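Protocol step 4 of 5: obtain the predicted structure for the target chain.
Materials: sequence only (see below). No template structures provided, no constraints applied. The aim of this step is simply to have a reference model before the mutagenesis design in step 5. Sequence pasted as it appears in the construct record:
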Amino acid sequence: MKSLNCRSNREVHMQRFGSVTERLFRSSIVALILATVIWVCGAVIRWWTHPLIGWLPAVGLGVLATLACSTAARQVPQADGRRFWARAGLAAGLLTMAAVSNTFDSASRWPVTAQYISVRTMALYVAAVLVMQVALLCLPTSRRQGRVKLALDSSVVIVTVAMFAWHFSFRHGDQWHAVTGSWVAMAAVAVLGIVCIVAVVKVTTMQAIAVAPSAMRLLAVAAGGSGIAGAAAPLLVDHRHISDGHFAVPVALAFIGLAADQQRRTRDQPATAVRRRRWSVWPYLAVSAANSLLLIDGSGPHGRFLIASSVALTSLVVVRQIVALTDNGRLLDTVAAHAQELRQARDQMAEQASHDHLTGLPNRRLLYQLLDGTDGPSPAGLSRHLLLLDLDGFKNINDSLGHHVGDGLLCAVADPLRTTAGPDAVTARLGGDEFAIVVACPGDTGVELLVARVLDAFTVPLEVSGNELLISTSAGAALLEPAIDAAEAMRRADVALYAAKRDGGRKFVPYSQELDQRADEDARLGAQLRQALGRDELRLVYQPVVDMEDNRIVAVEALLRWHHHDIGMVSPALFVPLAERVGLIGVIGAWVLREACEQMVRWDRSPGDAPQRVSVNVSTRQLSDPALVATVAEIVRETGVEPSRIALEVTETAVFEGGVAVDNLQSLRDMGFLIALDDFGTGHSSLSLLRTCPADIVKIDKSFVDGVTVPGAHQVITVTLFQLTTGLGMSAIAEGVETVEQQRELQRAGYRFGQGFLFSRPVSADDVAVLMNRQPAATGV
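Step 4 output (structure tokens):
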């Protein structure tokens, strides 16, 4: 503890020392600049005329700038930044040496003149500017400034500055020669001016990655200020004791030192995005300045030069604009192409939202809209009916032959249903193996005849993937009366269908009020389901979710199974809807969540790795229960599981209508639970659902995965769904992955996580632990 206190005290002292050093550095810069200003002003009014004292602030500023650049080069984390400030330090050192050399030049010709510049001094000035120019040009940028645009902008500014420099300075060549004693100085200043201009243009048009933007602006001031000051030599013809270096060199060194200090002070601050203009201001400023000069002195003896320069300048600006318009044209073409792709994807998604992607039939959403729109009178002598049809034994076909055969069977069934129902009927697929037909028939007899034709259509085996499948259907029907809505019509038809299947299938049952009385039977079976909790007949199995990069398990989905003491295994497709109807789904759902949480605790306490997350399915009725949030919160509090390790899976249908369901999901998400949209694409698929539903994970339905290996709409939609979900900040999980080819295509589309028989079937909790211990530690989802 004592050593920690000592270390803390040392850090405090170091921070205080650094703060004092920063204030002392900036104060020294300001003091030396003030000294320069005072000396120059005094020399102009001839209070003092000895030139040597005027060089002392420049030498002091050079030492400070060199030290500041060296410090910045050591402290900047990026290698590019370190190289830049090392070169800047070298340039500052060369500039300081040039100031010292210029001091000796002034002393050697005093009292005749202090404006003499030797070849040695001029070489040092040129070397300093060139080193700084190399440092700027070698600095990488995050903005892709085209070389052509940079060259044009630089040329525009060079022509403009040349006009002003020639008009106010260089045309007085005799005065340059009288001041410096040589024509070399004027030529060197012209070359250095061009270099400074290019540096200023690049500094103000680029966004450096390794150098702070505020430091770059200070460097621009250093380059521009020193260049302007260097061109003022002819103005000093009557003040031979003053050299342009007396104020040009201090300006450059002062702002280089301030830039290095600014870089050092911002090294620990996070990088922020700098808002830049989408267009360059240089061409417009240059044209405005040139036109102003032309208006002022365009008719004088030197007007031809100004006019020629203005023409050249205007030509450069025109070329610059042509280049910019060309780039904009390319950008617009790219935007138009992307917009077309987005429109096509939107149209495909809109089609998918109202039609079943597997069979092409209208889906449940469109069917509900049609049912709600049948309030008008029926055709004369006809009545509208809703038929629900279900394929008998479809689950056995799926389990024994595979989902690809099951999907093929659904497609093979869709065409005979559409043909048998006729062109005036609406045939839809509701999901799974359930179909619906809305048809106008002459009374109950007409409905029975239609159902008889449908049943007869499947007396011939269907060939699917090399398999001859003989199937049968069960059907239930309800009369579409004006007094009932779509939901009630579906309920009645579903009651009738349930009665047909319960009676052995391959039959048709129309709805009657007597069917509602059979709800008592559901109550008795519901009682057995309730007793199943006490008899320990319910259990959970877990299907892994894997990282497809290395097939490591990262999560599991809890699936409910019922082993009845008399009839054995009961399909979830039977007892889960029963639990919904008899009101047991809330109790069973709470049991499933508690059991999954307790199993997570057991996995965590046992040796070896544990899944990082378990998913639990939440039914539509659970979501509409106002007490759901409190129940879930109590379970995780009692079991001690972190909410972030629990994902609650819901279907699109459960949240499509919004209301209490979405409010409950938002509350659970605020508590830290993850929300997953299960079987996305099979229910009320809607792009708006991705925006309104507070989801973290989207599980892409198996039907999309089945078509991912075949070029076409399914593949495009699968890729688009991944882009949409990830673009909205959600994770995407592909369900029903069964082949290596599917896994490979999904990974190529960007998917990372998958679930399906290719990786593992649902297994017991003990088997999950075995699988986890056979692999390296999993990463998070």
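Step 4 remarks: The chain is about 60% helix and 10% strand. The first strand starts at residue 383 and ends at 391.
Proceed to step 5.
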